[in-house]
UniProtKB/TrEMBL annotation:
Organism: Neolamprologus brichardi
GO MF annotation: an example: gap junction channel activity
Domain Connexin N-terminal: 42-75
Quaternary organization: A connexon is composed of a hexamer of connexins.
Annotated membrane topology: Multi-pass membrane protein
Gene Ontology CC entries for this record: connexin complex
Annotated TM spans: 21-40, 74-95, 124-151, 183-207
UniProt keyword annotation of Cell membrane present: yes
Record bears the keyword Transmembrane: yes
Name assigned to this protein: Gap junction protein
UniProtKB keywords: Cell junction, Cell membrane, Gap junction, Membrane, Transmembrane, Transmembrane helix
Length: 247
C-alpha cells in the first residue's frame, strides 16, 4: 500500500496545528488507522462465516445476521475514517492554494511575498481550519451515535435471540469471538471520543486566541492618535497666541 498520500496529509496539516491538533493526528493515524488495518479486520474476518444459529431452517441464519448486523463494524469504521480525514484535505488544499498564489505574486512583484507570515492561520485559512475542526468533531460524534443506535449500545452479547421469518421459532444465535470484538469496539469508541475532545479544545483555543487578538489594539494606532492630539493642541495654542498678539 502506498502511504505517500498519508505522509503528505500529516505534514500539510501538522504545520498549522496546535498541540491538540497533533494529538488528534496521532490518535487517528497511529491508533485508529493502524488498529483498523492490522488487527480489527482480522478479528471481524470470520464475522459472517462463524455466525451460527441452532436451526437448519434455510435462510434463517442469513436473516438473523442481517437483522442484528445491518452494517458491520468494519464497514462503519472505514466510512468513519474516510469522513473524518476529508476535512483535513480541505486545509491541505487551502494551504496549496495559498502557496501557489504567493508564488505567482512573488514572480510578478520582484520577490516580495503576498503573506507576511505564511505559517500563520489568517483570513480564509483560519476559517477553513475552524470549519474542518467542526466537521471532524461532528462526523465522529455522528458515527458514534449511529453505532450506538444500530447496536443499542457498545456492548456485543455472546447470545442473540432471533424470531425473524423464516425462523420456525425463537432461535439462539452465537457471535464468534464476542469478547475480543467488544474490546476493539470500546477501543475505537474511546479513541473517537478523544478525537472529539481534541477538536473541541482546539476550537476553543483558536476562538479565544482570535478574540484576544481582535481586542488587542495595535500600538501604532495609539501613537498615531497621540501625535495627532499633540499637533491639534499646538495648533490651538498657536492660534491663540496669534489672536492675542494682534489684539
Amino acid at each position: 500500500m502506498n502511504w505517500n498520500w498519508l505522509q503528505a496529509l500529516i505534514s500539510g496539516v501538522s504545520n498549522y496545528s496546535t498541540v491538540f491538533g497533533r494529538v488528534w493526528l496521532s490518535v487517528v493515524f497511529i491508533f485508529r488507522v493502524m488498529v483498523f488495518v492490522v488487527a480489527a479486520q482480522r478479528v471481524w474476518a470470520d464475522e459472517r462465516k462463524d455466525f451460527e444459529c441452532n436451526t437448519r431452517q434455510p435462510g434463517c441464519t442469513n436473516v438473523c445476521y442481517d437483522h442484528f448486523f445491518p452494517i458491520s463494524h468494519i464497514s462503519l469504521w472505514a466510512l468513519q475514517l474516510i469522513f473524518v480525514t476529508c476535512p483535513s484535505l480541505m486545509v491541505v488544499a487551502h494551504v496549496k492554494y495559498r502557496e501557489m498564489k504567493d508564488l505567482k505574486y512573488t514572480t510578478t512583484h520582484e520577490g516580495k511575498h503576498m503573506y507576511a507570515r505564511p505559517g500563520k492561520k489568517r483570513g480564509g485559512l483560519w476559517w477553513t481550519y475552524l470549519v474542518s475542526l467542526i466537521l471532524k468533531a461532528s462526523f465522529d460524534a455522528a458515527f458514534l451515535y449511529i453505532l450506538y443506535y444500530i447496536y443499542e449500545g457498545f456492548d456485543l452479547p455472546r447470545l442473540l435471540k432471533c424470531s425473524m421469518d423464516p425462523c420456525p421459532n425463537i432461535v439462539d444465535c452465537y457471535v464468534s469471538r464476542p469478547t475480543e470484538k467488544k474490546i476493539f469496539t470500546l477501543f475505537m469508541v474511546v479513541s473517537s471520543a478523544v478525537c472529539i475532545l481534541m477538536c473541541i479544545c482546539e476550537m476553543f483555543y483558536f476562538i479565544c486566541k482570535k478574540s484576544r487578538s481582535s481586542l488587542r489594539v495595535d500600538p501604532t494606532v495609539y501613537l498615531f492618535y497621540y501625535e495627532n492630539n499633540i499637533l491639534q493642541k499646538l495648533k490651538e495654542k498657536v492660534v491663540l497666541l496669534i489672536a492675542y498678539a494682534f489684539n
